[in-house]
From TrEMBL:
Transmembrane domains' residue ranges: none
Naturally occurring in which organism (per UniProt): Xylanimonas oleitrophica
Top-tier EC class: transferase
Localization of this protein: Cytoplasm
Role: Specifically methylates the N7 position of a guanine in 16S rRNA.
Keyword Cytoplasm: yes
The family this protein is said to belong to: Belongs to the methyltransferase superfamily. RNA methyltransferase RsmG family.
Listed HAMAP family: 16SrRNA_methyltr_G
MF terms (GO), sorted A to Z: rRNA (guanine-N7-)-methyltransferase activity
Alphabetized Pfam families for the sequence: GidB
One Gene Ontology cellular component annotation held by this UniProt entry: cytosol
Keywords tagged on the record: Cytoplasm, Methyltransferase, rRNA processing, S-adenosyl-L-methionine, Transferase
Encoding gene, per UniProt annotation: rsmG
Domain of life the protein comes from: Bacteria
Protein name per its UniProtKB record: Ribosomal RNA small subunit methyltransferase G
Length: 214
């Protein structure tokens, strides 16, 4: 059994409560549900249970300061709901579309939406490219979905002109930029920015890449 004592203590700390503010109870409840069912339902690996707050919930929350308060956000490849569910809880006036191709994951996402009364969320089963032309979002998020070139090709058509991809990436994201330039040029995209998403002291910042569709 994974020792999750330290991770639970982090989640219950005053600094995390202060960072999440009004969203704390919902995010903590979502974390408890993931801790209870995530591994069993194939949503997270067994070792992730012991670092849910540090590696997943706060990692997802780190993107929120770079998102608008209102408008439409699409989360591509939502999986367990990271970052989409966390974003929806922290930005209740943002309309959030969760796109996920796997049925068992969309079933989970729908259960989470109902359980926490997330009236600002719609779950859409399918791949990103199946929704090209169906809507135009103001902002798009993704986490651990694909390299920048592939993600831009799949995701840019989901954004309105002037809309932004604000995606969670690894430390080596700079290496993905040059191979993606051809795709980015096709959408007249801005120069990608690498940003640091910080949450609370002692938790490693999240690397975020932001690029605007022309």
């Amino acid at each position: 059994m994974v020792d999750d004592t330290a991770d639970r203590a982090l989640g219950e700390s005053e600094q995390v409560r202060a960072f999440l503010g009004d969203a704390y109870e919902r995010v903590a409840g979502f974390g408890d549900l993931l801790r209870e069912q995530g591994e069993l339902r194939g949503l997270i690996g067994p070792r992730e249970v012991g670092r849910l707050w540090e590696r997943h919930l706060l990692n997802s929350a780190a993107v929120v300061p770079y998102l608008p308060a209102r408008g439409t956000l699409v989360d591509v490849g939502s999986g367990a709901g990271l970052p989409g569910i966390v974003v929806a809880m922290m930005r209740p006036e943002l309309d959030v579309l969760l796109i996920e191709p796997m049925e068992r994951r969309t079933t989970w996402l729908s259960e989470v939406v109902e359980r926490f009364g997330l009236g600002n969320v719609q779950v859409k089963r399918g791949r990103a490219e199946e929704y090209h032309g169906a809507f135009e979002a103001d902002v798009l998020t993704a986490r651990a979905v694909a390299n920048l070139a592939k993600l831009a090709r799949l995701s840019m058509p989901l954004l309105r002109h002037g809309g932004e991809m604000v995606i969670l990436k690894g430390r080596n994201v700079a290496q993905e930029i040059d191979p993606a330039r051809k795709v980015l040029r096709a959408y007249k995209a801005s120069e990608p920015e690498i940003l640091s998403g910080t949450t609370v002291a002692g938790v490693e910042p999240t690397t975020i890449l932001r690029v605007r569709r022309g």
